[in-house]
Predict the structure of EmrB/QacA subfamily drug resistance transporter.
Amino acid sequence: MTDTTVTHTPAADHPSATEHTRWSPRLWGALVVLCAAMFLDALDVSMVGVALPSIGADLHLSDSALQWVVSGYVLGYGGLLLLGGRAADLLGRRRVFLVALAVFAGASLLGGLVDSGPLLIGARFLKGVSAAFTAPAGLSIITTTFPEGPARNRALSIYTTCSAAGFSLGLVISGLLTSAGWRLTFLMPVPVALIALVAGVKLLPRRHDGQRSSGGYDLAGAVTGTAAVLLLVFTVTEAQGAGWLSARTLGSLLLVAALAAAFLTIESRTAHPLVRLGIFRDAGVRRANLTALTLMGSYAGFQFVATLYLQRLLGWSALETALGLLPGGAVVAFSAGAVGRLLDRYGPARVLPVGVASMALGYALFLRLDEHSGFLGLVLPSMLLIGAGFALAFPSINVAATAGVADDEQGLASGLVNTALQVGGAIVLAVTTAVLTAGSAGGTDAHAQLSGYRPALLLVTGTTALGLLIALTGAIRSGRRRSQAPAPVADHTYPAEASAEQEQGVLVSER
């Protein structure tokens, strides 16, 4: 039997963050701190890519070892996000955020100073771990400070735009810094993280240290869940070298399945689970996480293919490649205000499919690539469509993934959607790499390279089309609810995709 508890969440509970008042300078300052940390987390996912050849030459690393300079960060980030989200709920969001940000700064400094490949990979893993705690803690601070509706939509559009801009501009910044020295790509985040840390101590509301979820720590769930995600990311990352059908890969996937089954069993039986499985009864949360998997997966795969194509086949330099991809990142960076207003007016359920469709069209246009393609004819239109789509879709996903979730589970909801983004990126990127390698068959001439790039881009486009179908189901369901629901009350503040109960100003939580 499901017991439905109805809890009113009026905007007055958050007087400094309501849509009816101006945000104070202190509130703006806190948001800037959170945005700076998220920008750095996202930046580190992509920024190291252009620097890899220089790192390999300087530290005498093989291609397989270089892969782990990238994968080490993704492994720590994607593998520990669920634990990071729950730690924020249990230990205090402000405290977890500040400690993890300090670790991020230290790991960045270490990565810029080491002269050993294994130490560099270890520093990257440690940065990923720290990001796995700052990302859900920061997002849940926002969602518990700003009430659902225009105020939260505005804050999340700014926050997620900073995240998307960090990921999109990573290659550009890396190209500029690597021309002066690859170590700068690791050292650049240090002063930014330290400034954000000092400002965070002053500006982040201390009530977030007191806002803790009740209950135990579910150590068994934490061990099995974290191990399953870590092993999954490790397996798909290593599958290209070991072989997708090798005994090692298949055995690892079986172990992942066993760990996942054990995790689900534990979570369904423990009194205080790491992940309350009932959260997935919310169709909006499910759709947001599934769309997140496809969105980041396709974007990571496209960025990989486009970078190789522009540098290897067209002969662009690292800096030229970074500047060629800049228009997409620029669209994302300057879109925060407009996207927030669109979310207020139409709701994420209707904005999200428009964004995903724009990205799919951009990928499809890039399929026209050949050995003589140019910036204006191929790269620019694709990057503008992809940038506009990412700017619309990424904030919509974050709003949808946290809408209607109780305050004491905002860390969990934030950890789930961030995990979906990172795991999706790792899995689709690994499959894209395998398709590209199989298509080119090891050839280096233009025909062989194009034979790898085109099927890889088809995979990217198809993955995005799947995400579009998922997003469209949400838009259709939201439209039906809107046509069937009674007229909204005057103080309606919830996003357009909220359930019928939420559209009447209440929060429904199933226990």
